[in-house]
Amino acid sequence: MAYTALFKSSIGKKLLMGLTGLFLITFLLVHASINAMIWFQDGGVTFNKWAHFMGSNLIIRTMEWGLFFGLILHVVDGLMLYAQNRAARPVKYAYNRAGDNSSWYSRSMALLGTLILLFLILHLAHFWVKTRITGIEKYGLDTENQENLFAVMQEVFRSGLVVAIYVAGCFSLFWHLLHGFKSAFQSLGLNHVKYNETIAVIGIAFSIIVPFVFAMMPISMHFGLVR
Fold it and tell me: What's the domain range around 59?
């Protein structure tokens, strides 16, 4: 009962947001590292090798389902926290300049999170469904006789519209992380005057580099910068 009451409270929801947020940050780092393998310029052999490992390893597959539930929990908890905060202040102040006290993206985390969720649904339809459900046999094998997920990427990112949507999704991810990275540590009580500045710097760097890597993947595939 005590745990139920905790996670129904504002503090409990923030704690849950912090835990799921750090889990998703870890996943983003791993996923971006795997995606970066496309720039080995070896016809996707290195990328396919690591993608196959990620798709066949039992531990990774188990964590994959944990990721799905963690992502859904993160989004739902965020929206509930947003609704709870709105309900706690049903009447706006007569004079309120929110920009004086907070950035627009920190006040728009629910919207940015929802946009990212919609983008991820599209991403799953493009890749997860093909690799986990319908199969990718029609794309053949690479030069090392591995399933050719690289060829799937080439087909998906042939469309300029799809590339534009992915880049927009990465842009939303940048703004979401810019506030969410540091906020996750604060929600878990892991902030301290001695290392707050370090966390902030790492958070800014992470917020720029990871979405940039994700955005450059479809751009590079579309314009033939990787082969």
Answer: 10-83+103-222
